[in-house]
Design a protein that fits this description.
alpha/beta; 6-stranded mixed beta sheet
Amino acid sequence: MPRHRLRDAVWASLHARLAGVPGIWKANAGALRRFIEAVVYVQRTGIAWDDLPGEFGRPPSVYRRFRRWSQQGIWDELFLGGIPTDALETAMLDATACKAQRYASGARGGGAEDLGRSRGGLTTKIHAVVDGLGRPLCFLLTPGQAADCRQALALLEGLVFERSIGDRGYDTDELRAWLKEQGIEAVIPAKRNRKQPIPHDRKAYQGRHKIENLGPHPVSTGQAA
């Protein structure tokens, strides 16, 4: 099955939800599925709406329907309505360093650069927060040598959640104190050099792989030309 098409089981679940959404045309299940797959294709590939393959229908028509659904809140009802509450109450932290080419710095007029020297050479570090389903909430760029834990508060402030999950790199007294003050559960393994290890919810921590699996998901929401 093509990578950008919906699996039958996924479509069956979406179709069942769409059946309960009023005000949309859904008499032709095949055409409805083709429209949903067109939207999925654009979101996953990041192409412009005008470049949508003809097998999905006329690009302007598909875009107008997508925009109409957005204005009516149908996408929110379709995808947020079935999300477990726990997913919206969890914020997971992580960071990764990206190696930069040696000519990436020093250009005239380049402005501020988030580049630094670390064990990997010239790098930029991407700090991210995702929810319980692994959906990105915000990003922050720093030079590669910046410590993960020092960016945690900048990432988390302003978000509403009840549980924070991070690896040992986020085990600091400052972050734990801030989370406790906010009434947020810290699911963070204690560093091995802590004299008095702090316990954490091991079952909840198993979900941290979702932020490690975070990859680029280009989104195109521009108007059709």
